[in-house]
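Bug #2210: token dump truncated for ABC transporter substrate-binding protein?
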Amino acid sequence: MKINWKKALGLTAAVAMLMPLAACGSDSGDKGGAATAGTEEVTLSVWAPQEDQAKGDDGSEPWLTQVEANFEKEHPEYKITWKNDVVSEGDAVTKVKTDPSAAADVYMFASDQLGGLMEVQGIGELGTDAEQQLKEQNGDLEIASMTGTDGKYYGVPYTDNTWFMYYDKSTFSEDDVKSLDTMLSKAAVSFPLNDSWYIGGFYDGLQLFGADGTDESAGMVFPKDAGDISKYLVDLAANPNFHNSADNSGLSEMTEGTVKAFFSGSWSAADIKAALGDNMGVAQLPTFTVNGQTKQMKSFAATKAAAYNPNAKNTKAAAQFAAYLGSTESQKLHYELRNIIPTDKSLASLTADDPVAIGQTDTMANTAILQSGLAGMSSWWDPAKAFGDAILNKEVTSDNAQAKTDEWVKQVGKYAE
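Reproduced locally. Full output below:
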């Protein structure tokens, strides 16, 4: 649902509700000097990726510059001085943790950093209107990605961050790509088995800190048949039509035509489109079969979002602008300028003819699990990569797959009861 910002944020009464009272205080809108009668001088520091601050190939103004100008039009009650610095979404938590009081008023971040940002009290809770925006614009996974361990909401998503499947339509039909086993029987497929962000996709039933990723006591729970799935992966690695995508080699193989399917995210779209043209196919993840049972591959799902710093000098303006970065209008502009696929469901018609957007959206909705933002996720990465390496190096075999899987599960989590 598209948010009408003039109605939702422009009115004084609605703006007063944007921040929780405990965070805002009765004087939250009184900080800063008055430029003219009824106009408040506000300085907002903003962290955003370099790409969002670069001019377009046609000389158009950067996305961030345009969004800031649009925000000023929506909020004539402010006279804003902008202080923009380059900080990528992936680096936000490190920078905020260094000194939350000196961090930007508004920043963009990856959802798996939420736990770390909350620990240092460097991220502000959404107020009434922003929470409504979050829930109206997004699906369940996106909402869960912004849910803290306290059940409250932090940050407004503007794009998803996950992986899905690219394939050559001249080789595989739409029915073929529903089953990985069928695909492997026909042509070569590349997958990064020793990449810890990907290998978990085979363990159908894996749960990371509860259904919504916020239950630290739940831990990482593996399906009971994880050992059988590991045996499947041993056979997969030995299949001549399976190519491991080491250091993203699968992308090169896909563009060269030596493999006909490749698992990656939206960042690979331009290269694959250049190589395959109209034969580029994109789809949610396929199934595979273990001991006669159909299993569903599921990627880790996260989002990128905008947030405000509760240590900002003007928390009201900061919260308003953070929400505006994820607004319908800003997401639409992001897609038009940089092809950043929106999470806003009301923009579905905008991406209706974009196979990458459709593949990503379908994956988030149907074949993904939430990548938790809790600090405990750090225990996943190294052991998962090591297990993938062990399969590829034939240290894990059909005979010892159960025992090796038991060791891995004991190291990071537990089996489902």
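Output looks complete on our side. The longest strand covers residues 39-48. Marking as cannot-reproduce; reopen if the truncation happens again.
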